[in-house]
Inverse folding.
């Protein structure tokens, strides 16, 4: 490809010193830090407003709503970014679907932050209302995380929704489902979602958490570092005091009536997290369920990073130095995308990445050394709390038993656990081999929602831990008009001469 050219010649090309993927707490603060240090920033995010999933703002269609800590934080971040409107370009409702390195044709443009000897640019292809290309000398990946639900029979029935999906409805649209609602899963998000449903007038039938009271007591020392959040959690429990809470319990099956959720089966768990004892049943019109978060590593992978397995951080994470710096020049990763440590740590991690990008652009690692050093202790303190919550959100090993042979594990291709096990029996011992044989991970989600459970099955069958498949463009589903923004004419296609018979 010629230097300084987009993959698609009709695509508009814009330039920045730093491109940032993700405008959540980490990416937003990385942008602010870079802008404060005089760098131009292209901030690219799929949402219409900054804040990410955690600080998702209330829809503009809602004229008045009581503020929450999350909505206030989102508004504050948006206001701060707006103050740097001359240096931060916010590409909203935009998806990065391709990342590559190209040669820098610096003679075609001017930059106030040229780095001698830096001859490479990061080129990002963007799917938006107007598809375009962003080129930058430095790239910060702040893609956050997404939720995981351990598959169980009936989890694809309408009326079953993830905890993260429920928070989006509650935060942005203040929507509460009708009928009896059960909230289930692991970690603090169970109680947050339940408390918000109750606050907004929903009818809670029960709360079912995989954790025990002892699990929470064990996390208490780490929580003492954030007494504000501890008090907030106690407030949730106070609000929910009239709702039945089933500790050390898991949903094992969902039943439908007229193609909608009607009832749930649940069982108690033993010390290993395996269901045991009798099965109980409860009527429900809606189930909100989640079993922790997974770092979103696909953009980091596409940029060239390898992954390492770190269960304490949510699973597979990018290979980085302890300070978050990768081996690839001009590439930085921050926030939950490099390990689940919580929102407070993500803010500080974003600031660190912004400072690292500044030092890179100025070819001077000492320029921001003091500022980076000042972040070390508060980051460690915040990360300690966040990792304690990650531990509470993690799956106990025995909970994999709720995924029976008949359970669908790949929703896009309607593959069951038995389908995956049969493929493994043919000596398909990697994600790639299973993908080739059964198409697992080839649907619209690109394997985001099935790679973890397939990894579970692989480990159970082979004893080995297999990394998720490599990231491939497009990173997310995109409209065909992004690839061909103008109608093509058959007669214009550069067809070769017919092959001689």
């Amino acid at each position: 490809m010629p230097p300084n050219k987009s993959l698609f010649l009709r695509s508009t090309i814009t330039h920045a010193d730093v491109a940032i993927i993700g405008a959540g707490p980490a990416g937003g603060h990385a942008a602010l830090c870079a802008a404060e240090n005089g760098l131009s920033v292209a901030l690219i995010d799929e949402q219409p407003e900054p804040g990410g999933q955690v600080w998702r703002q209330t829809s503009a269609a809602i004229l008045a709503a009581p503020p929450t800590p999350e909505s206030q934080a989102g508004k504050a971040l948006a206001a701060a970014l707006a103050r740097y409107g001359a240096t931060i370009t916010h590409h909203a409702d935009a998806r990065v679907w391709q990342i590559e390195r190209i040669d820098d044709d610096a003679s075609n443009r001017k930059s106030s932050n040229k780095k001698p000897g830096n001859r490479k640019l990061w080129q990002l292809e963007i799917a938006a209302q107007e598809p375009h290309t962003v080129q930058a000398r430095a790239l910060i990946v702040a893609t956050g995380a997404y939720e995981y639900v351990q598959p169980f029979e009936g989890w694809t029935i309408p009326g079953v929704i993830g905890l993260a999906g429920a928070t989006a409805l509650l935060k942005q649209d203040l929507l509460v489902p009708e009928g009896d609602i059960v909230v289930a899963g692991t970690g603090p998000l169970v109680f947050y979602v339940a408390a918000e449903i109750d606050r907004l007038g929903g009818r809670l039938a029960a709360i079912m958490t995989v954790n025990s009271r002892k699990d929470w007591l064990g996390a208490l020392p780490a929580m003492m570092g954030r007494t504000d959040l501890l008090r907030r959690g106690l407030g949730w429990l106070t609000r929910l005091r009239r709702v039945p809470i089933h500790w050390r319990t898991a949903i094992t099956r969902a039943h439908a009536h007229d193609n909608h959720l009607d009832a749930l089966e649940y069982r108690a768990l033993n010390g290993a997290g395996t269901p045991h004892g009798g099965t109980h049943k409860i009527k429900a019109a809606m189930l909100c369920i989640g079993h922790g978060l997974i770092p979103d590593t696909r953009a980091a992978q596409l940029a060239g990073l390898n992954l390492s397995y770190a269960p304490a951080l949510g699973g597979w994470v990018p290979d980085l130095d302890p300070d978050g710096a990768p081996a690839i020049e001009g590439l930085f990763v921050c926030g939950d995308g490099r390990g689940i440590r919580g929102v407070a740590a993500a803010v500080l991690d974003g600031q660190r990445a912004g400072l690292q990008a500044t030092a890179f652009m100025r070819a001077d690692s000492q320029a921001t050394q003091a500022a980076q050093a000042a972040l070390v202790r508060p980051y460690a303190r915040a990360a300690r709390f966040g990792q304690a919550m990650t531990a509470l959100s993690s799956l106990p090993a025995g909970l994999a038993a709720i995924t029976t042979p008949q359970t669908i594990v790949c929703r896009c291709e309607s593959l069951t656990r038995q389908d995956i096990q049969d493929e493994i029996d043919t000596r398909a011992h990697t994600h790639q081999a299973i993908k080739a044989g059964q198409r697992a991970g080839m649907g619209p989600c690109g394997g985001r929602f099935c790679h973890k459970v397939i990894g579970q099955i692989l480990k159970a069958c082979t004893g080995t831990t297999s990394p998720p498949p490599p990231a491939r463009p497009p990173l997310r589903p995109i409209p065909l008009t992004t690839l061909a923004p103008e109608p093509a004419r058959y007669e214009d296609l550069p067809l070769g001469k017919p092959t001689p018979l």
Remarks:
- The chain has 13 helices and 21 strands.
- The mean pLDDT is 90.
